[in-house]
Amino acid sequence: MNSSVIVFPGSNCDRDIAIALEKMQFKNKMVWHKESKLPKSDLIVIPGGFSYGDYLRSGAIAGKSLIINEVIKAAKSGCLILGICNGFQILTETGLLKGTLLRNRNLKFINSDVNIKVINNSTKFTSKYKSNQVLKINIAHNEGNYFTDKDHLNKLKNENLIAFQYCDINGNISDQSNPNGAIENIAGIYNSKKNILGMMPHPERMVDNLISNTDGINLFASIMN
Is 79 among the catalytic positions? Predict the structure, then answer.
């Protein structure tokens, strides 16, 4: 499979995701934000980091960059799009995903390994996971507090568009297991067609037992499959 990773000024997880993709045998290309054309891509990744220094608000400037027009076209044609952390924020800024990412409820940057539950494992991003499987994944963000309006929240629930929710080690979803205040403990969501996934946790950091664990591998294996 061919993948493309979009790189912005301030991106700092672009190489991490590239290494994870290459480990899983993707043929990957790095695409600078000023490019006007995308390589042939089965998967486009918008990585984490602090695009444009998070000026104005997280993802706001990146959402207007030149290459994003091509990402939007690819998304509408059915290409798989994965936005991680700042990438999730950028996806909401472009309107490819609804909702927004607010500041963490404690108003502090969080860098921690947390537990998330796989809510929908019948997508191209999660088919290698078991339903309700609990993963240990790293988060590192200041604005990870997902919020959306009541109608969209109901749609997320009714159409099974919630990808992951924060939970404890036993899979219990509660306020105590919510690190940032996200509504309904939401850690990741899909669009209606389920070809776009935005998530705050970093699966690319969990692909090697030597430095963390391998709980992120099956996300990339699902896409490859």
Answer: no
